[in-house]
Design a protein that fits this description.
The protein is mainly alpha-helical. The protein has helices at residues 3-25, 29-41, 59-67, 76-89, 94-99, 101-107, 113-116, 121-127, 137-157, 160-165, 188-199, 207-216, 228-235, and strands at 173-174, 220-221. It has a two-stranded parallel ribbon. Helix 4 (76-89) runs antiparallel to helix 9. 30% of the residues are buried. Mean pLDDT is 86; it is low at 25-48.
Length: 239
């Protein structure tokens, strides 16, 4: 038996096992089966199983695209992390922020909103001297303010998750863009969310920042339809 034939049998066996699980429990059967077949028979450099172009640039960007971006997020701790990072991204590229992500985690107590909300002027000044992060004093001060406002929202709604996801009726918006050129920088909905956050005292929450947050945390699925993650994320909505 040739090596090639053995590999084919292995792929077919893996698909058979996957289909058995899918057909038993998943409501998105057709989409999931199609995605599974693509992943086994088409390498990621093929058009049929391509990745969003922006996610092909560096190893950490690939990992972020493939594992985090667009996945519905409901953990308040992680939501606060993205809230902070998106605020620091304002006017910069996401790659810059992503490169400094671990440094941000260390500098901001692993993005614990309770701890960040208690930062003093001395702590804020020290962060402004930390070369490992983005040393924008206005954004650092806004982060502390936003942590305080974040806790207020948690008190009012029970969680920040309940507050932010109410704007999409607790269900992700699934777009169907075929090109990155079609992706909006902001929408009427992000305008609405931004306005409400500003009313509550949050800072660095312009509509563009908020739409980026919505994309990152899966409130909207903005992977292009030909990206292998587009259907994979849809398949997992009800799991």
């Amino acid at each position: 038996m040739s090596v090639g034939f053995q590999r084919l049998l292995f792929k077919l066996l893996a698909i058979a096992v996957g289909l058995r699980v899918i057909l038993k429990s998943n409501p998105y059967r057709v989409v999931c089966i199609f995605t599974l077949l693509k992943r086994y028979f088409y390498p990621k450099n093929k058009t049929m199983c391509e990745r969003c172009n922006w996610g092909n640039t560096t190893p950490n960007m690939i990992k972020y695209h493939d594992e985090e971006w667009g996945v519905p997020l409901h953990d308040d701790h992680k939501l606060f992390e993205f809230f902070v990072l998106e605020g620091f991204q304002a006017g910069l590229s996401w790659q810059i922020v992503l490169n400094k992500r671990e440094a941000f985690r260390e500098a901001f107590d692993q993005f614990d909103p309770v701890k960040v909300a208690k930062y003093t002027e001395v702590k804020i000044a020290a962060l402004g001297e930390n070369a490992a992060i983005i040393r924008n004093k206005s954004k650092i001060a806004a982060c502390v303010n936003n942590a305080q406002r974040f806790l207020e929202v948690q008190t009012e709604f029970g969680s920040f998750d309940k507050y932010i996801w109410q704007f999409v009726d607790f269900k992700p918006i699934v777009n169907s863009f075929t090109s990155l050129k079609e992706l909006p920088a902001k929408t009427a909905l992000s305008d609405l969310v931004s306005a409400d956050l500003k009313k509550r005292g949050f800072k660095f929450v312009g509509s563009t920042v908020i739409y980026a947050h919505m994309q990152a945390t899966g409130m909207v699925n903005d992977h292009i339809v030909s990206c292998f993650r587009y259907n994979e994320i849809i398949v997992n909505y009800n799991q």
